[in-house]
Structures are given as structure tokens and as C-alpha cells.
Amino acid sequence: MVRERLGVAVVGAGYWGPNLVRNFATAPDWSLRAVCDLDLARARALAHRWPDVHATHDLDEVLRRSDVDAVAVATPARTHGDLVARVLAAGKHVLVEKPLADSLATGRAMVADAEARGLVLMTDHTYCYTPAVLRIRDLLAEGALGDVLYVDAVRINLGLVQPDVDVIWDLAPHDLAILDFVLPGGLRPTGVAAFGADPLGAGKACIGYLAMPLPGGASAHVHVNWLSPTKIRRMVIGGSRRTLVWDDLNPTQRLSVYDRGVDLAQQGADADDRRRAGVSYRLGDTWAPALAEHEPLGLVVAELAAAIREGRPPRTDGHDGLRVLAVLEQARTALAGDGAATRPAAPPQDVPVRELVANGGRS
Amino acid sequence: MVRERLGVAVVGAGYWGPNLVRNFATAPDWSLRAVCDLDLARARALAHRWPDVHATHDLDEVLRRSDVDAVAVATPARTHGDLVARVLAAGKHVLVEKPLADSLATGRAMVADAEARGLVLMTDHTYCYTPAVLRIRDLLAEGALGDVLYVDAVRINLGLVQPDVDVIWDLAPHDLAILDFVLPGGLRPTGVAAFGADPLGAGKACIGYLAMPLPGGASAHVHVNWLSPTKIRRMVIGGSRRTLVWDDLNPTQRLSVYDRGVDLAQQGADADDRRRAGVSYRLGDTWAPALAEHEPLGLVVAELAAAIREGRPPRTDGHDGLRVLAVLEQARTALAGDGAATRPAAPPQDVPVRELVANGGRS
Amino acid sequence: MVRERLGVAVVGAGYWGPNLVRNFATAPDWSLRAVCDLDLARARALAHRWPDVHATHDLDEVLRRSDVDAVAVATPARTHGDLVARVLAAGKHVLVEKPLADSLATGRAMVADAEARGLVLMTDHTYCYTPAVLRIRDLLAEGALGDVLYVDAVRINLGLVQPDVDVIWDLAPHDLAILDFVLPGGLRPTGVAAFGADPLGAGKACIGYLAMPLPGGASAHVHVNWLSPTKIRRMVIGGSRRTLVWDDLNPTQRLSVYDRGVDLAQQGADADDRRRAGVSYRLGDTWAPALAEHEPLGLVVAELAAAIREGRPPRTDGHDGLRVLAVLEQARTALAGDGAATRPAAPPQDVPVRELVANGGRS
Amino acid sequence: MVRERLGVAVVGAGYWGPNLVRNFATAPDWSLRAVCDLDLARARALAHRWPDVHATHDLDEVLRRSDVDAVAVATPARTHGDLVARVLAAGKHVLVEKPLADSLATGRAMVADAEARGLVLMTDHTYCYTPAVLRIRDLLAEGALGDVLYVDAVRINLGLVQPDVDVIWDLAPHDLAILDFVLPGGLRPTGVAAFGADPLGAGKACIGYLAMPLPGGASAHVHVNWLSPTKIRRMVIGGSRRTLVWDDLNPTQRLSVYDRGVDLAQQGADADDRRRAGVSYRLGDTWAPALAEHEPLGLVVAELAAAIREGRPPRTDGHDGLRVLAVLEQARTALAGDGAATRPAAPPQDVPVRELVANGGRS
Description:
The structure is a homotetramer of 363-residue chains.
Chain A: E1 6-11, H1 17-26, E2 30-36, H2 40-47, E3 54-56, H3 59-64, E4 70-73, H4 80-89, E5 93-97, H5 104-117, E6 121-124, H6 131-141, E7 148-158, H7 167-182, E8 193-197, E9 207-213, E10 219-225, E11 227-239, E12 243-247, E13 255-264, H8 271-276, E14 279-288, H9 296-310, H10 318-335
Parallel strand pairs in A: 1-2, 1-4, 2-3, 4-5, 5-6, 7-10
Antiparallel strand pairs in A: 7-11, 8-9, 9-10, 11-12, 12-13, 13-14
């Protein structure tokens, strides 16, 4: 009988684990079987509300259970490689917290392993399942903005200084995953420049800026910051027809689409003509689409179940995770050697790009 | 008799000229004598409200007048070098629009010329005379923020694509001049990284990002953009004690000082100790100082008169203009060769830094 | 020759006079002939920028001039009755500051006088000529909001305590004139309740609330306040189809039209059925129409010229002014006898209502 | 042993019940014993997460339990009278949802009953336990605002049209309870004027305005609205020294204290002198106190336990509930007879006022 519930275990009872537990425990597709954490007390505290859920500190015990079909890994990034290898070796599907891994090489090994075994590896890019991001993706796909000219993302607040990763690896994955998800063809920067600052002497960047030229003259910029006393989560996507502003902290108008912009008169075909030609300004209306409210993690766990049942890659699979890791690695390279300098880094050649939507791509 | 009015002429009747004319015409220190523009009709249209003001297209005629003590130059940056040379050669003091010149070399020549002749050369960094910037400078000077850790400036809107300069040379001089004015010791980046984008094919960058490491581990970042459908003018100055946010478009609360931030416990003396030590968060009150309203250009023309009368450099003199030019030149170098790439550029060695406030500096 | 300029004089060089002077002086339809104020120095200070404009303290001298076709009266409300009578007796058209008079009776006499003499009497309801209000009127006329259900207007700030009028007579005329202008059929409350407060002991209300039932179950509420440390200028017009919010202090989105609201299912014809039936919620998109920028007073002086030339009433004529006065009088009646109490006051029977737009009304 | 947990049952599993259940279930002072709802399925759905909590539709069964010390009543207001009578008759303490009852008479009977039996009757005025309201109360008590001059409260959003109560009885209790809590001496209006509108024909007011003169020339105004497409929760408390603005939807600056206002020069003792005297304006700084975050309902259940253990009235007891009911009744009287008119209604004589803080009152 196809519609039987799938069994799942959650590994890691820290910051994100409770959200996974709550969503798996209440989802129609899933039976939550176990919560696993090296700190058994923490696993128990998380599991005790759900009488049928087992708490343990022993992953092998979890992996031996035949009623566990998938494992969600919500532990620090540096542990993902080993944990996922064990999960896959046990024949279980896996959902992995962002970032997929702490290096591109490790991420590649994980993805190759899952593919070799025919198991689903899903990256938990939760933001991609929010009503706002789903709508942005649709607007871009249907051409409402025209061609993308630039993206400017800001994600700053008074944040927890992480023990093992800098602010770029901590916060930028959100914006990179979103860009990969909404840009037709995915995130394919032709280079990455990075600037990081550690003014407190914390031993890692607490402020970061990424600049990425995109194909066709477009570009993307991401600003992340743990030291800002005010909180901003704002992404601007400037298009040739319209510009979208996503202000995630404005619940009554998260998305605004501005029919406002600069037009270059394009009488001639070549660049010189365009440069000589005048510019004009559009000052049109603004439109704020209504967004239904739903919890994005509910869609994540539903998508994982559907991918397993249908034997297909999930919407945010390992390759999406790799494209995010590729940019993070380039940023690390750009920053290396001089803690506060900036050098451009070329993209790796072997991370597959997302196929173009126009080609009837996978998403 | 000392308090006699000084005579002034305004050259350039374009965007900024009318503001200069209005302020000189109504200032108690000044008698506006002439308005000069190559387009005589434009000069006349601007002068006709002031019965005693002569309109002309002939600068030499203006420079021959003995009742003209100073000339304000509000023409495109590429003309500043020649015009200022003629003004100084005629023995007149000069007020120059920002940016001081279209190259550092030209700017240096202008400053050297004025100093050799003992004439006042003032850069019209108008923002430095606003109530908000004057207050920020005081707050930094008195230590209310502690040491500066980072600066993040955003100046974006739907702007006029300029015929001769890119967005960095058009808009960033405002933020650079402000930084030079408020930072104790002035703006002294140890490098400049720049990223520019021209997604419309306008022939020049319409989006620009500057990242500047500052001495002592601090850094500054400036984002300028002509293509944004929404307008933002915001500068954050993060300090070791408090953080200031200047939102110039919020008239009821332009300045907010947040007693909120991250503290590294500093039990040990060396960096490793600091890194191992924990961090803590301050979540204190916010304070928004009241600001008196005044027109900053009124202070500019008053300061020019005072500097001439007292034989001293004005608050924003040629050296301030040169420090701004030095950063713009470094950004140009960083961008050169690859329209959308980024390379760090070292600062020129011979632009004098502002003396430290602690040394009883000139301001 | 028809397109000859008309001559005008401005009486009153106080708060609003300078705006009238500037607009008449630069309008293509008008030649500004004179500025008149009991305080001759103030008249001169205002006139001196315009070489051809005569300054005087003698209204009779102005009224004797044959090159003056119209007079704009910008003096305190209590003087309007006498001044307008003199202007009309001299055969001149007249533009009168809001409120039209300090009592309904005086206003009626003014309007009757102008009509008897065949002269134009225009009320300077400047707000009715702003891009926002013109657009609101169009949206209501074309049915974009459906039937008006309620209006809620707030106009509060730290304001000048006026020597002769309370806050209701000072600020509410703006909102009442706007309502009269935008509501199809004009402002026709079936009663007026008022609440005023004078917590400082200033001798007059500094805080005021007006509540007005409108025909068909709708209602309007106006809140005015001189004591608020923050400034709000906001009007909500709730309609059966959509709701409009006008936030005059948000320049990037002054008007927002929300397709969001409560629907009563209306299966049955009578009220009981409706009450038993359920309600549902619409959560549709928001739309912010672009507004061209223009100075409304420029349209006011152009409309005055057009009305004089075409021998027709202007868009905001004396009857509009009377409908505003009628509400102010009702509010005064409601407040009388008990400084802080509230009683409903019925409307006067003889102030003509605006004809319905559906009847091909005058506007 | 005093610190044993108290037993509690929650009656009503609708909108508010789940919040009570969650807080009682996790509070150190309480053992949640039962959830009771006429709809047994709803009671079970709410109880099933807590293995030891009994679900039932039979209140008598709950009241017979000796391990239940208190009952929380979260049912529609019209049922409070009967339910609370049964709870008290069973010797249990009681926490009652706002409004305390659907009439002042019923509320009085409840309070008298509890006092006769020596049982605690607490009104669940949850807002009074929020960090913002607690801080406002402190600021007023310590004189930071000076004397209260006016209060203006707005609580509007797209709200559920309630089946049994109008918008005034639904939403205004929040603001009235807050005012009663923060005003030194409690809420003691000398009259209540009300204006209600039912533009949808829902059979009850969906828009309401209350105006209340307060002793000493102050006044309070409350605006509630179920039909607003935008959400506003804002209270302004104007004082003789400073003015406080509470914007509950601005998490980064909920409270702002403005040292900005109008001063009447007070050279003379009598009113005429004051009126002749000039006014001046203070334009001082703004200050936004930091607020700790906590869940207010956690404090409510802790306060209930403390009151029971210490044999004292809780912070928000039945008399607070009665003062709120008194205003609601006056508003109902004011609105009666004419659905959209307004008449002042005098306060009942026998609702005890809160003793003044200066007298060492109970709070």
C-alpha cells in the first residue's frame, strides 16, 4: 500500500532539530521514530512530548532499525560528511542541513555516494519553500521582471558568533540557495569576490560581502553581518522590465514589484550606439502580491517524502547544495592569505549548473 | 572695515548652481555679483530674480572684477582643473563642487596652486555641514561609540545616469567625504576593493560597491546604485561601545544610537585567548538625539567667508577633497582592465592624512 | 485677446501668503500686481523679490486698481467676511483661504454675495489639487473601491497652538474638504459628534475627534491633534470592494489599494439573513498607483483663472466651503456647554449638497 | 509542603485555550489536570500532547476532582457568569478570560461571590504582563512622563467578526485593561462617549470609537476596527513632561519616549493668565528603553499561583475586570437607541476605583 507513512529519525537536537522534530511528528507522510544526539539528555528533552519517539545517543542503533526510511541530519557542518556516509551506507535516504558540508570536496563525495546507491539526498534549503521565495521564482520564470540585471541581498542582525564557521558560511548559504532556486538556470557566477572583516578579533569574519558577476552582464551582491544592532533581511532583484524588493520583515508587504526603472533607448544594435543614446525613466505603479501563509518546513518534509516515493530528485537536491558550496569555497579562496583583502576567484569547472527552465529543466 | 560683505560669483547654472546662488544671495557675509554659464540664457534665468546680479557667459569678465573676492565652481568635474587654475591665477579664492577633480593628479595641482598663492580652496562637501553629520562627528570625537569597528553606507535610488562619470564617482564622494569628516584622523583606508556593474550597457558602472580596510582592523563599505526603485540613504557606524544608524530619510529619527552589540570577553591579552573566550550580547536602550534643522549650504558659505577673513583653511579644504579623490582613483584602478572584477589597490603614499583629533588637529 | 494675463493681488503676508505669491508670480495665467498686509514691512519683505509687485497696507488702494481682476485672501478666518465683502463690492473675483469663514452664517453671506454679483468665489482647498487626492477622487468615481463603508482620517503632529481657533477649526478643514471632494455626492453627514480636549489649559481644544454617520450606513471619523510628538497624516477609505490607505508622509507609496477585506455572504435579501450568514475574508494583492509630482497650488491658481475666463464655478467653490463650515458648526454645537462632552448635532437644512456624480454633477 | 504544584483545569478549547494549556502545562507552579470543552473531540485534540492531562466535556467531573485547585475559563463571555458560579461553588479559584462578563451586573455578582467565599478571582488581562506594559506602568509611576494629558489608542486589523459581541466588547477590553493597569489610580473616566458603525450590516458594530474624559482635564480615546486591511496597535500617552508612543508591531523599538511637546508658559496662577501666556515647544531627544522578551501568559499563571498561595488579590483581579466592564456598559448605553449616534454616559457610582499609587495602593 503506497500511502503508508515513511519512518524518519532526526540526528542533532540543537538549534534546528526541534523544528524538524515538530514538522516530522505532525506531517501526514511521516512517522517520527527517533531523535538522536550525542547528548542523551538533550535528545530526551526533545523527544519526550511525543510518546512513540525513541531518544538515543547511538546513531548505529537508529540505522539498524528497519522502520527508519530516512534520516535528517541537523548537526554542525563539519560532521555532515561522516554522518551522511554512515546513513547512506545503511541504505537510508537523507535530508541535510545547510550548508551541505564544510568543503566542496566533502559535498561532492556525499552527492556521488547517494547517486551511486540510488538514494535521495536532499539539502534543507528551507527558505526555498517559503511563500515569498516560491512566488519570486514564479515571477522570474514567467518573465514578470524581464532579464535579471542585478541582485542585492542584505541579511544582517545581532547574531550568534558561531564557534566553527564565519558569518559568510553561516548566513550567506540562505541567500545563495535562494538565488540558485529563483534564478532561471540557477546560480552560475563567473567569479566571486569577497571581503571579510573581524573587527572584534573573534578569529573569523563577522562581517562579509560577496560580489558575483553573473552571465550576461548581471551581478549579485550579498551582505551578511553578525554585528548589526538592527535586523534587515532584504533582497532586491532588478530586472529589465521591473524590480522586485523582498523585505522579509514586513509582514504586510513582503514582496513589492516596482514598475519603475531606467531604460536605455536602444535604437542601434551595438554597444556604442546604446551608450550614445539617451536614458529614460519609468515611474509606474507598485504591486504587492498577496502571499498565503504556510510553514516552509512542512513543505520540505512533504517534498522529501514525495521524492522518495516517486524515485526522483527533490526540488532542492545535492546539486543545489554543491552550487552553494562552490561559491562559499570561492569566497574562502578569495579571502585566504589576507584576512581583510579581496581577490576574485574563478568557479570550479565541474559543478553542474542547473538546466535552464526554458529547456524544461528538472525543477 | 572687516565686516564688509565679500563679493562672490557662481560659475555653472546647472543642477547645483541654483542652490549656491540662493545661499550666497541671502547670506549676511556675501554679495552675489555674477552668475556665469556658457549657456547665457541659463545664467540669465538663474540671475534674474536678483536685480543686482550680473549674468554672463564670459568667465574672464567675472575674473577681472575687483569686487569679486571668491568664485564658486559648480561645473562638471572634468572642467574643474582649468577653471580653478584661472580663478586662482586671478587671485580669487575658490569653492569647488565635489568631486574636487576628475583625477587625483589634477586635484593635487589645484591644491598646490592655491597653497602657493595663499588663497583659500574649499571643497563643497555639503553633507559635512548637515546637523546629522555634525552630530555624528561630535559623537565619535567624544567617544560615545568607542572605537570604530565598521562602517556600512548605502546610497541608492533611481538616479540620473550621468554622461561623464560612473555611479562611484557620482555618489560615493558624499559618503567618502562624510567618512573623512567624522572619523577621528580622517579617511585612511589601507586598500580599496571595488566592484562595479553596468547591466544596462550604459558604458559605465551604474552599481558600485567599495570595500576599504581601515587601520586597526576596522573597515568601511559603500554601496551606490542608480537603478534602485526605492531610495535608501543609510549609514551604520559600528563601534566598540555603541552603534549609530543614520537614516537620512527618516526625518523624525535620523540618528539612532544603539547600546546593543556583541562583546568579546577579554580575559587574556593575546588573540588566541580572545578567540577561546566567550562572547556576550548587550541589549541596551536606544537613544535618538534631537537635531536642529538648518540648511547646510548656509554653513558652507559662512565657513568660506570665515576662512577667507581669518586666513585659515576651511573645515573642508582641498586636502579633504584629495583624500576622497585618492579613494576614487584606487577604485578606478581596482576596476580597470576588467569591467566587473575586483582587485585591491594600495593607497597613494603622498596624500596627507588628517591629523588625529587627539593631537589637537586642524578641525 | 483672450489669453491675456489676469491681474491679482494677495492680501495677507503671513504663513500661507508667500506660497500664494510665489505661485501667482510664476503662473502663466497671472500677473501679480500687489501684496497687501496691515504690517507694511511684512508686505514689502514678501514683495521685494518681484520687482513689478507693489507692496501696500491699504486694501482700498488695491481694490481701486483696474488691472486687478482677482484678490486672494490669506488672513485669519475671522476677517474673511469683511474683506471678501469689500473685494466683491469692488467687482473683483476672490480666492479665500480655508476655512471659508469663522461661522456658517458669514460664509453663506459671502457665497450669496458673490453669486448675486456674478463673481467667482473660490475656496482654497489646496489638498484637493494634490496628485494623491485627485487620484483618490478618480478611484472612487470609477468604483474601484465599491461603496464607501468608512473613512478614518488622522492628522496629528506637534502643531502651533493657534491664537484664535481650536484644533478642529485649524486642521479638520483639510480632511473635511478632501472628503467633500472625493466622496461621490460630497460630504453629507447625517449628524456630527465631537469630542475635544484641552489638557494644557490653553483655552481651546488642542485635541479633537469628529464622528460623522454618512448616508447608507457609512461613517467618517477625523482625529486632529496639536500635541503629538510624531506626525501622522493618514486617511483610510474602506470600500465594499477594496480599501485605500493614503499615507501622505510616505513619498514612495502614498496610496495603497488593498484588495483585502471582510465579505458578508449575502444569500438572503433581509438583514436577518445577512446576520445569520457567515463572513469570509479576502486576502488579495495590494496595488500602489504611481503619482506624478506637481505643486497643488499651481493647479489652484490655474483653476481660478479658468473659472473666471469660462464664467463657471471653480472645482472647489463657495458651496464646498460651506459644507465644510456646516460640519465645523455642528461640531462647535456638539461641544458647546461642556468643554469635554459630546452630543450629536443635526446638519443644517439649507446647505446644498453636491449633486451626485451619477447625475452628471458639476465636477 | 508549600511549594507543591497546584492543580488546574482549563475550560474552553477554542482560540485562547491552547495558550493557557501550553503555559499551565510547562509552568513550575502548576500541574495541568484536565481540559474541558463541550466538544469532546476538541478537548482531546488539545490534551493529547500531554499524556497526564484528562480530556472531558463534563465540567462537573472536573469540579469534583480534589487535585484541581483552580479553573481557567476561556469560553465566550456570555457563559462566564454561570461557569464561574459553578467553579466557585465547588471551592475552586478561578482565572477568567477578558471581558470578565457580558454585563456589569453579572461581573459584580461574580466578584462578590468570590470575595464571600475567600477565593481568588483573577481576570486574564494578559497584556498587563507584557514587558512593554510593565515598563509603561513603571514610567508613569516614577513620573517620567509627568501628568497624563491624553491617551490615544488604536487597535485595528482585519479581524474575525465575532458571533456574539461587537468590536468594542471584543477589542477595547485590551486597551481599557491596559489603561486601568498603567494609569496611576486606574481607569476612572468621568463619562464615556461612543460611536459605532456597522457598514456591512453584520448586526453589530465592526468599527468603534470611545472617548473618555479623565479627572483633571485629561482624556482617553480608543479606536477599534475589524475591517482595516492594515494592522495597527499603537498607544500614545501624552504627558506634561514627555510623551510615550507604544508601537506593538515594531519589535526593534516598541516603546519610544519623546522629550518633545508644547509648554504653556505659566506665569500666572489663573486660567486667563495661562491663556494669555505664550506657548513654547520642546524638541528634545527620543529614548527607546530596551525590553526583555518573555511570554506574558507565563507571568499570568505564576501570578495566579502566587495569589492563591499568599492569600492575596492578584495583580489583575476582579475589580480591574469590573472597571473595564463599567466602561463597556457605558459605551453600550451611549450607543443604545441609535445605532450610529453618540451620547455621553455617566459612570456607575459603585465600581470601586483603584487606590492611588501615592497612597501605597495595592499594586
